[in-house]
Write a structure and sequence with these properties.
7 helices, about 240 residues, alpha/beta, single chain, seven-stranded parallel β-sheet
Length: about 240
């Protein structure tokens, strides 16, 4: 795969899957637009990619702010001239609470980031993709959106929504050169510093978590022209997960 001349937006680019994905796109010669709320970690990945000789922009924003999303898109277009690929990776998940103990403020925050943030960025980049007759949008969902995870009801709900959003949007734009797919990770390594590391996991028949690089491999493949006949799909990358 070679992304020379392609411009890629990666949200949630400062850590874990987003970081590994941004680095892999850089290795494959893409121009990059990096988005994350964690300004310090974002600076580190931005510098690492710039040191590789890759042209990259970095924006420390909260994707639930629609005005900021449109400003990032405007600046990216002004700098690179086009947006070819959008990786909607940013999201909230670190909570394990029975539904009766959650509050509507918690639900709304998950909806604002996980659902609306993805929709804001997709809505912002689509006009340019439609104008160019080319685009790839990959939404990072979760197996929680497929099976539903107890004590993660709000998270599961938002990830299920992303899968439905993916399938519906794909059908609107596929005949205009734009492919839309989702990737649903299973258990993910928590080692931000090592994108190739993994840990034991009883949730997968493989007996381990997926590495950041393994998820990035699938994301980059779906964004490439090698995946030119794939759209409206949710690809589970889960080590042959045991259904919950």
């Amino acid at each position: 795969m070679d992304f020379t001349g392609k411009t890629v937006i990666v949200t949630g680019a400062a850590a874990a899957i987003g970081r590994a994905t941004a680095l892999q796109f850089a290795e494959l010669h893409a121009n990059l637009v990096l988005v994350d709320m964690d300004e310090e970690k974002l600076k580190l990945i931005h510098q690492e990619i710039m040191d590789m000789g890759i042209d990259a922009l970095a924006f420390p924003i909260d994707i639930s702010n629609e005005a900021d999303v449109h400003e990032v898109t405007r600046q990216a277009l002004a700098h690179f001239g086009k947006i070819d690929i959008l990786i909607n990776n940013a999201g909230l998940w670190r909570r394990f609470i029975p539904f009766v103990e959650t509050t509507s403020d918690m639900w709304k925050r998950f909806i604002d980031v996980n659902i609306l943030g993805t929709m804001y960025f997709s809505h912002a980049v689509l006009p340019n993709m439609l104008e160019n007759g080319y685009g790839r949008i990959i939404n990072i969902a979760s197996v929680a959106g497929v099976y539903g995870n107890a004590n993660m009801v709000d998270y599961s709900m938002t990830k299920g929504a992303l899968i439905a959003f993916t399938k519906a949007l794909a059908k609107e734009v596929v005949n205009q050169g734009i492919l839309v797919n989702a990737v649903s990770p299973g258990s993910v390594s928590s080692a931000d510093s090592d994108r190739d590391g993994f840990a034991p996991s009883e949730l997968a028949f493989m007996g381990r978590t997926g590495t950041h690089r393994e998820f990035a491999n699938t994301i980059c493949f779906l964004a490439s022209d090698d995946a030119s006949y794939i759209s409206a799909q949710n690809i589970q990358v889960d080590g042959c997960r045991k259904k919950q």
